[in-house]
């Protein structure tokens, strides 16, 4: 920009040069004045002057354009500075607005959280209120039941007071019952003693039965031994005598052959088995 405002040193000198005016080109080309104006070739100095004048005009226009551009540049620079300043102000304002908006958003968010917490607490309070109402209804029903029971107790108390006048007769009945209980206890003690005596007798009988069973077992053993000896004697006699003599001897002798009881006394065996079953049941 500083170079565009620079003027060459010859520019001022060009302003001081006298400029000769050449005939207007329109007059030269006009056929009516051709015969009036003699056509001569322009001298070299005139051409140089005209060229210099054209350059001077161009320089002047460039200077004017340069000045205009410089003024425009200054104005644009001022506008740019103002725009930058305004942009800084707007940036600061935007940051402030953003911070305010952020603060507002945070405040709104916190308010919404508080409202949600309040709504939850209200819901909890509503549930608790419903529970309290149910408890109140239950307490009301319980109060009514207690009122009915209290009335029944009052009636029982009145009846008890009327019955308390009969206490002497009741005491006499109680005394009679005590006496009956004493007699029952005495009877129970007597029964216990009798039962103990019966138990002792039963034990004695059981011991005697055990001894009898032992005797029966001994008798069985002796009877079995006797049967074995009789069978052995019969077998020996049969082996010592012929068959006819054996039949005759057996027929005439009631202690041998068919007359001999090889199985013992059936009554004794029956009694022994009965005592054995009794002992097993014990």
From TrEMBL:
Q: Which GO terms describe its biological process?
A: cell differentiation; flower development
Q: Which residues form a coiled coil?
A: 66-156, 209-236
Q: Which UniProt keywords apply?
A: Coiled coil, Developmental protein, Differentiation, Flowering
Q: PANTHER family, from UniProt? A: PROTEIN FLC EXPRESSOR, PROTEIN FLX-LIKE 2
UniProt lists the family membership as follows: Belongs to the FLX family.
Q: This protein is called what?
A: Protein FLX-like 1
Specify the species.
Actinidia rufa
Q: Where is the organism placed in the taxonomic lineage, from the top?
A: Eukaryota, Viridiplantae, Streptophyta, Embryophyta, Tracheophyta
């Amino acid at each position: 920009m500083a170079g565009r405002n620079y003027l060459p040193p010859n520019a001022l000198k060009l302003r001081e040069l006298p400029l000769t005016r050449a005939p207007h080109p329109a007059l030269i080309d006009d056929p009516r004045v051709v015969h009036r104006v003699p056509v001569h070739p322009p001298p070299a100095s005139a051409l140089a002057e005209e060229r210099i004048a054209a350059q001077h005009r161009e320089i002047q226009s460039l200077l004017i354009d340069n000045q205009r551009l410089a003024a425009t540049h200054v104005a644009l620079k001022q506008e740019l500075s103002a725009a930058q300043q305004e942009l800084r102000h707007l940036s600061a304002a935007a940051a402030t607005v953003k911070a305010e908006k952020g603060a507002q958003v945070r405040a709104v968010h916190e308010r919404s959280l508080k409202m949600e917490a309040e709504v939850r607490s209200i819901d909890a309070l509503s549930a608790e209120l419903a529970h309290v109402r149910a408890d109140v209804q239950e307490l009301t029903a319980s109060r009514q039941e207690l009122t009915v029971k209290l009335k029944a107790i009052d009636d029982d108390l009145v009846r008890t007071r009327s019955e308390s006048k009969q206490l002497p007769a009741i005491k006499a009945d109680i005394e009679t019952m005590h006496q009956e209980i004493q007699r029952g206890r005495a009877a129970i003690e007597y029964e216990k003693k009798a039962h103990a005596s019966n138990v002792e007798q039963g034990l004695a009988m059981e011991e005697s039965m055990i001894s009898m069973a032992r005797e029966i077992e001994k008798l069985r053993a002796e009877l079995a031994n006797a049967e074995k000896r009789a069978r052995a004697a019969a077998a020996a006699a049969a082996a010592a005598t012929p068959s006819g003599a054996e039949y005759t001897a057996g027929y005439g002798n009631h202690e041998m052959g068919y007359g001999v009881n090889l199985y013992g006394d059936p009554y004794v065996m029956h009694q022994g088995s009965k005592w054995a079953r009794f002992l097993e049941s014990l």
